Amino acid sequence: MAPITMTELVKIYPGGVRALDAIDLTVEDGEFFALLGPSGCGKTTLLRTVAGLEASSGGSIRIGDRDVTALPPGRRDVAMVFQDYALFPHMTVTDNIAYPLRIKKVPSAERAQKAAGTAAELGLSDYLGRRPGQLSGGQQQRVALARAMACHPQVFLFDEPLSNLDARMRLEARTFLKRLQRELGVTTVFVTHDQAEALALADRIAVMEGGRIRQLGTPKEVFHRPANTFVASFIGSTPMNLLDAAVSSSGEHLAIGNDVLPVPAAYARALTDGEKLVLGVRPEYLSYSAEPVKQALSGEVTVVENLGSAQLVTLSGEAGFVQVVVDEDTVLVTGDRGYAVPRQDRMLLYRDGDLIGTGTPAGAAA
Ligand code: ATP
Question: Candidates 23, 36, 43: which one to mutate for ligand 1, based on the most atoms within 8 Å of Cβ?
Answer without folding.
Answer: 43
